[in-house]
Amino acid sequence: MSLDTQESPDQVASEELEIQQLDEGVIQAAYIPDFKVDDMILYFSPSLENPKEVYHDLPDKARDRWGGYFTKKGYKFLSDPSGRPPIEGPFQVKPGKMRIEILEPGKIFSPKPCFKKTASSEGIPIMSLEKKRPFDQWKPTYIKSHGFMKRFEAPHAVPRAVDYALWEVEESAEIPGSVSWENAEQILLEYAQGNSQVQEVLGELFEKRSEEFSLGSEVYLRVLGKADEEGLKKVCDYHNYPMTTKRSQVAKALAQLGDQRSLDALLVLLEDEEPEVRTTALKALGSAGVPSDHRAAEILREFQNSEEITERVWATEALYRGGDEDQYKELVKMIKEVDLPLMDMGELGQTLVALKLYSTVPFIIKRTRHERPEIRDDAAEVLRELTGLDPEFYGSDTLEKRRKAVKVWDRWWSDYKKQRKQEAKKG
Fold first, then answer.
1. 3 state SS of 5
2. Residue 23 class from Cβ within 10 Å (0-12 exposed, 13-18 middle, 19+ buried)?
3. Deepest in the core among 87, 195, 285, 373, taking most CB within 10 A?
4. d(CA 191, CA 186)
5. Does the pLDDT value for residue 299 go beyond 50?
6. How far, in Å, are 17, 18, 239, 240, 302 from residue 1 at the CA level?
7. What angle do CA 217, 255, 329 make, to 5 degrees?
8. Where are the chain's structural domains?
């Protein structure tokens, strides 16, 4: 769609045009941006098919925080529609499909950032993005991780992109608002897959870094676990690391990875001397899922009798994810009978969303009528995520206002049941 109207700068920045999706994309720059590259909204001039240059925008909050990344041409593009070249847009690359390529820094001039529509296509200059990383007024004058990184001796030489990514991860924990570590994690994963040397460097960093700022450990373990089977094995082998803080990080990483190949390591962590490690290990078993014939299943059944609701939830989730569909009834029973917000029940609401258990919607709707407003608000948040509908609902609203919002979810549930019946008839 062509954009040649005469809106104000604020209107241009927030215009509600339908964003079309691109299957993939590559950002080429001499640095790793502080904003998420997945958030970039792209405009091609004169067209997507035959682009000569690219302009970008960011969502409101990211634009306000990282406005320094816009060139003068970028600001003019957003604020002066009458001065724009012919363009087609807006476009956005599908989540997780935007790659980053680090360009070699020029000896005199910095290379111009570019966008590639595919990995093999030619780069198109991004006229709105600065060549150099802008000054960040919120960046601390002293960053503790710099000392560690300067002293760290990597067991292998790594590509420039990996080196940049490692520094970015270590810095990010100390820089307010920066999400450059998410871009850096994507780069590290790309280079770690099938690369034993990069994996060894990540492992060495995990072992030697301080846990004062834990972000680095979280990223390195997550990258290793996702890289390949050898990387996951490396993470699991840290289950008996002598430092409690390190074992705790391993348990957290395995909880995020949710891989059944880590069950043996998690069983060891489940008997750790530290309560925090044991708790996280049980949560990790919930994320991974445990088949009913695995030796961990019997242990989980014991946890289902625990006085702690979080332990009961995670144990039940583990068995359900492992294939025991009878555990669904136990999940519903807890939704109906426990007088706590789902968030306080081992984040049960997020589990229902992750498992797409739409059949629990009527039971959660009943929670919107609970006498306690915090339970009503919690239920509404889960319903928003399960149904994709966001009627105005606040737990402290009048009964009439709440009923009006709940009717939206009631209708969704009615439509969902009809759809399921039609699908069942078709066979």
1. coil
2. exposed
3. 285
4. 9
5. yes
6. 9, 9, 54, 58, 60
7. 165
8. 9-125, 355-427
Residue tagged 């000392």 (tokens): 147
Type of residue at 55: Y
3-state SS, residue 28: strand
Among 134-143, 188-197, 281-290, name the one with the lowest average pLDDT: 134-143
Burial pattern 89-121, b for ≥16 Cβ within 10 A else e, equals: bbbbbeeeebbbebbeeeeeeeebbbbbbeeee
Residue 253 near residue 222 (C-beta atoms within 8 A): yes
Give 385's Cβ-side CA count (13 Å radius): 17
Strands 88-93 and 41-45: antiparallel
Cα–Cα separations (whole angstroms), residue 296 to 265, 267, 278, 290: 11, 7, 14, 7
Which strands sit side by side in the sheet containing 114-116, from one edge to the other? 98-102, 25-29, 114-116, 124-125
pTM: 0.85
Residue 249 half-sphere exposure, CB side, CA atoms within 13 Å?
27
- State yes or no: pLDDT of 233 exceeds 90: yes
- What are the φ and ψ backbone dihedral angles of 26, each rounded to 5 degrees? -135, 130
Kindly report whether the peptide bond that precedes residue 275 is cis, defined as omega within 30 degrees of 0. no
Tokens (6 digits) for 161? 């992109």
Backbone angles phi, psi at 89, to 5 degrees: 165, -175
What's the whole-number mean pLDDT along residues 51-74?
Answer: 93
Cβ neighbours of residue 142 closer than 8 Å, sequence gap 6 or more: none
